[in-house]
Model the fold of this input.
Amino acid sequence: MSTNNASFIRTTLLMLMVGAAILLGIILSSLWLVDQTRTTFDYVVQERNIRSTSADLLQNLVDAETGQRGYIIALDQSFLEPYKEATSEIGANLDRLAMLIKGRPIKEERMPELRRLIETKRAEMSATLDLVQNGRQAEAVVAVRSEVGRELMDQIRQILEFYKKQSDVNIETGVAEQIEATSQLQWFTIGGAIAIVLVVGGAILIIGQHVRDLSIARSEVELLNSGLEERVNERTEDLIKANQEIQRYAYIVTHDLRAPLVNVMGFTAELDTSLKALQAYVLADGQALSDQQIQEARLAASEDLPEAIGFIRSSTKKMDGLINAILKISRDGRRQLKPERIDVKALLEATGASIHHQISEGDGRIETEIKVPAIVSDRLSLEQILGNLFDNAVKYKHPERPLVLSVRAIADGKRMVRIEVQDNGRGISEEDHERIFELFRRSGQQNQVGEGIGLAHVRSLARNLGGEITVKSEFGHGSTFILRLPTDLSKLVRS
Done:
């Protein structure tokens, strides 16, 4: 018995260490992925801000130059408005760009030259306008037709294009590294989950075998008790030692393994309850056990512990689902956009038709007001955004009234379009207006299946198209999702 018990302890300790190592590996890998994701995300956002600010600064200069030349040629005061507006933004965008590229030597070393060129260009534009205002239009026209202004703009454009290209390369590299790391962690988690199941299954088999061995040993001691006092004493001593080893094993299981397991799933309480039934059976110290105690011990070994395995499998499946969600978000910025002319009305009608049967079943209706003919954007991304918003309206409709889904598309300035998707559903509490766009976060009563990635995916797609999405909602009175997009995505893609 002592040899068997020593082998039992060695085997179970080995399994415990292997299981703990696997769990620790999964936990550390998950923490590493979170830290890597946060670092990469911050880096990519910084690069996208550099790119966006560079594009804004170039657009400011182009708008200012357009207003300058329009005023010089036409002597129309209306051209001065875009000029003044653009020049007022040039300084702020230039300072913001200088702040963003700090710590990036390749870009930072060209900032003095860029400042000098921009100041020279602003001085050139201001000088020509002063000539016109002093009645010297001809001299101003000659100055504009010279190569000075064009050469300055070409040099400025070259530096800003350099910034944007560098940022594009850095963004692609960061996203590629994150996707690769996430994919590796996914397979590691799956392998770890399988290993955990095997370890726990092996532990259950060993415990069951050891319980049977102890039961046989106790029966032999009882048979020998009638005439072999010495043998009984030896058997009793062996049994006491075996019980003490089981007690130490129970301590290891209920203490050393509890801490790492609780980080993956919450089934410690059930395991503890099951162990109590086994302990009452194993640690009886030669006392007779009731049928109920034996039944409880068998029930723990045959039902409760296998149920815990199910919790492990469910938890690892959940973790796999979350990793897949991160991969899905990470791929948004990696996919190459394909700008094309899209008929907004036709797209919204097609999206509405896909859920028409679900709405009509509840006596609901769809109302549309389309005041923009067409935009240039990525069709697949736009279909995914609108499809998600329409599906959510159906999924979270108010149970006491028919769904009314109102869709408006209107111009929002010269270069943006605004699409509003309004419903009369459950609504969203004010404190959750921003929370619902966070990854793995949901709002309100959760009676619908989901991981909480839909609106996070929508926001990622919208920002990848150069736009943004927000929500206005009052709990119990419906929601309005507001999607703002550029009318021509091809300009952003080219830049």
User: Anything to note?
Assistant: The radius of gyration is 35 Å. The CA atoms of residues 335 and 464 lie 10 Å apart.
